[in-house]
Here is the input.
Amino acid sequence: MKTLYHRVAGIDVHRLKHVATILIEQADGSTEQHTREFGGFKRDLRALVAWLRRYQVELVVMESTGIYWKSLYAHIERAGIESWVVNAHHIKHVPGRKTDMADSHWLAELGRFGLVRGSFIPPQDLRELRLITRYRKKLSGTLAGEKNRLHKVLDDAGIKLGAVVSDINGVSAQAMLAGLLGGEEPSDLIELAKGRLRSKREELLLALDGELSARHLFVLQSLQEHIRYLEGQLAALDSYLIEAMEPYRWAWELLQTIPGIDAITAAMILVEIGTDMSRFGSADRLASWAALCPGNHESAGKRKSGKTRKGNSIVRYLLCEAANAARRTKSVFASKYQSLVIRRGHKKAIVALAHKLIRTIYVILARREPYRDSGIDYRAAAVSKNAPRWIRALKQFGYWPTQTPVTA
Here is the structure.
């Protein structure tokens, strides 16, 4: 096999131990091997990078072991050495004598001949922003869990407010809940109803008539305080994330032109996939990387399960959430959803919309052009919006209806 790299290092990554093997190809085709073990602290990583530099290593290959590779990757990246983080599943399925040699040696051998490829690793700034976006997703899940717990405690006390109002976190519902915790009577609380809730006063009176014990009140007050705290944390994270989008404003604003994608979702998607679409090469490869395309399983001429693979769970979650919003818009996504949901069901239709969204994202970022919906006549929309102003101007300057200007 043809050697692609002549000075390659393979690193077996652990939490507090890194085993590195350097393979150097000689003029006669033989290889010179150097193996050393390093610790996992900062000084050890610096020593490892210095050792790689001393042997003029061209490529470093390491497995994506948990999160332990991240600090090592950052040190190697700053040193200007090309490094690949490879999928352990791919390494396992490459034929060879892995059990007969050290993992670091095997990684270096595969890297020499190009038998593995590096995973997508975003730039350092986006990698650090992933800490913000993924923490935000965790907080969002915690907040949803606390709101569900609030529903359960109210139902346990016989208060069915959540069954009458559409959103228990709305202004009216929150005011009524605060009144309940303050010891007010249900007959006084129904006056807090606003908008369409005023027509449901009798139902509200029945829904608020429960038996709140001292323990119910204690848990409800704790939940309310925790919910307010989590909402404040999320607001702070959102503000920080939007400010951090300034270097990527062009891409961030382009993504917001797609139906179903708001400012926060656009920011979180960019943090995951970056702005350089040349790293993926095509919309098909991006969709495959995110595991939002149908699985390809065919044997003996028979097509079997088309179930999607496991991919980037954050991207999948964001795009499925955006797809749920896009299906309610007046766009081509809504018509596609309607055509699929009858035959395939809601969940599969949403994944299909997410697939269409990620392909759209690739095209928009690659061309640096805003989204234009094929189902909308933008020229007609512009005329409809501006026609009254144009007619007023024509009348003002005498071009309407005579089509000849008024002479002074």
The chain is about 55% helix and 10% strand. The radius of gyration is 30 Å. The longest strand covers residues 17-25. Strands lie at 7-13, 17-25, 31-39, 59-63, 82-86, 298-299, 302-303.
